[in-house]
Amino acid sequence: MALNGTLKDFGIADILQLIGQQQKTGDLVLSKDNENQAQVTISFENGSIVRTETSSRDGRELIGTMLVNAGIITPEELEQALEKQRANLGRLGDLLVEQGALKTEKFAEVVRLQTSETLYGLFHWEQGRYEFEQRQVDPDKMLIPLRAESVLMEGFRRVDEWKLVENVITDDGMTFEKRKELPPAKFGFGNDDDGEGEYKNIGKRERLCYGLAKSGATVGRITEQSLLGDFETRKALSNLVKNGFLKAIPGKTKGKRREDPAWAGTLARVLGVALVLIFAAAIAVRFDMLSFRFGFASAARVFTPPYQGLSSREQIDRIRCANSIFALEHGQLPGALEELVDSGLLTKGDLAFPWLEPYYYRRLDNGTAVLLPPLH
């Protein structure tokens, strides 16, 4: 499969979806024309991400620096490993484990963090080029393969929530003042969300960041120490500020704010136009549903592609509800969406509306499922 072009024509989400659906093996190279020709290489094996490499990591993103900043190893231990690496070209992680500076499991955790930060950072790229070449790849033994669909859904979630977080945590230099103590953990520190009532969004990430938010500790420093990544650290700090546990103190020099991806700006403009055209759009939705129910020619559709995308979100929610009902009745999610039709929960038209092609659906081994609109 030859795949190359610009990110304005074919975005990150489309590329990941295509490679994941077709379960391809090979290397995807993404390059950015500015920022010193930044380049990221993502290796896929049967549609799963098994390695990432980037030519643009700054000092904070280098794995050795990440380990030192997090307090996992000392600068001296890093320098010792680097000297050995220069002598025999071995892997830094293997050398650190060999000299007893850290355990394999901890190094693998940092590798996964570095990989996720690289991948989800791509969702903010507004321009650049991509090229995918099918070939045999060398998986990173420290990285658990990541399904492309899972990365896609998580990337969308982060982009959707980023603005809300950034409204509270405005810069890397921001510090915090503790206003009150956290309530005791009801279910223990190991749970993702152990709060309840008004503090239901206070979990282990918030507790970790609260402990690191010492006097003078900046957002950047807390991010380095927490090993949660930029987004999860800021989200946890945002929750702590919103719930009154921390007071945010703006830094003297604001850090660089995240750029919205190009398609996010387009969506905002589409929503503005939709306010003017809402009445006509409602009629179009009704007419399109009728065309599916009674077999009218699909050419009669009056949807524009942007509005199809908005309508698709509502339809996906409807399919997910049908999935939940099916699971209650049968003890598991359907293996294919057609089973929802056979059960009378949906019609055939529901599985394509508002597109001409059906939705992409896959039931995973862990009992969950991936549901995405068709590739356009």
Helix-strand layout with pairing:
Layout lengths: L2 E4 L5 H10 L4 E6 L7 E7 L2 E7 L8 H7 L5 H14 L3 H7 L5 H18 L7 E6 L11 E2 H19 L8 E4 L25 H9 L6 H8 L3 H13 L3 E4 L12 H33 L10 H26 L7 H5 L17 E4 L5 E4 L4
Antiparallel strand pairs: 1-5, 2-3, 2-5, 3-4, 4-6, 7-8, 9-10
Helix pairs in contact: 1-6, 6-9, 7-9, 8-9
Task: Please provide a written account of the structure.
The protein is of the alpha+beta class. The protein has 12 helices and 10 strands. It has helices at 12-21, 63-69, 75-88, 92-98, 104-121, 148-166, 204-212, 219-226, 230-242, 262-294, 305-330, 338-342, and strands at 3-6, 26-31, 39-45, 48-54, 129-134, 146-147, 175-178, 246-249, 360-363, 369-372. The strands form 3 sheets. Strands 1-5-2-3-4-6 form a 6-stranded antiparallel beta sheet. A two-stranded antiparallel sheet has the order 7-8. The protein has a two-stranded antiparallel sheet with strand order 9-10. A hairpin with a 5-residue loop joins β9 and β10. α1 (12-21) packs antiparallel against α6 and α7 (204-212) crosses α9 (230-242). The radius of gyration is 24 Å and the shape is globular.
Tally of separate helices: 12
Element-by-element helix/strand order: EHEEEHHHHEEHEHHHEHHHEE
How much β-strand is present in the residues? 5-15%
Radius of gyration: 24 Å
Largest sheet: 6 strands, antiparallel
Based on Cα principal axes, name the global outline: globular
Q: What structural class do helix, strand and pairing data support?
A: alpha+beta
Distance between the terminal alpha carbons, to the nearest Å?
17 Å
Which percent bin holds the helix content? 40-55%
- Report mean pLDDT, rounded to a whole number: 78
Give the uncertain stretches in residue-range form: 259-304
Number-wise, the strands total 10
Describe the strand arrangement of the main beta sheet, using strand numbers.
Answer: 1-5-2-3-4-6
